[in-house]
Amino acid sequence: MNMINLITETEIKTYSTIDMNVAGKYLTEAIRSAQNIDLCQIIGSKLLFKLETIVESGDIELDAYKAYKCLLNGYIKDFLLYSVQENLVIPISYKFTNAGIMITEDEKMYQPDKSKIDLIKDYYTDKKNYYKKRLQDYLVGNCQLFPELSMNESGDQVPNLYSSSDSPIWLGGFYGKPVE
Predict the structure, then answer these.
(1) Model pTM score
(2) Nearest to 47 by CA among 66, 71, 15, 77
């Protein structure tokens, strides 16, 4: 599977607390999940595809795509940085073995204490949610710059620009409103 990453492994290792020798297979999967699930739910599949296309071609550097470059560098990469870290916590902490799910520490393996893992994951989730809300607010205020936000067809992931990350409480009803 050839995937166009909007954030690189090097950027993640440089701008986060992720150790430089974390295996690429963990980072690749975390980037894929952060981009194709977490980010796509916010910006929709049309805008995600547009960004991947102009990043892959190098056109993101052209003046015609200045708004997309600002979106990517000023908002999306911050969101992806914490989303990737959130997505890394479980795969790095837990290993599937013949003896069941184990946690490794140096050369020892033992049953994990889920509460400690959840604490770390919640830390990154809180940071990710801040950048999610910031990204949503930017897109709402600048939706005229990104026509892909309103070009959805059947089968597309529709952008969700109005869900709140401020509270984990959902009182029912719809999370998002359509982009006008």
Answers:
(1) 0.79
(2) 71
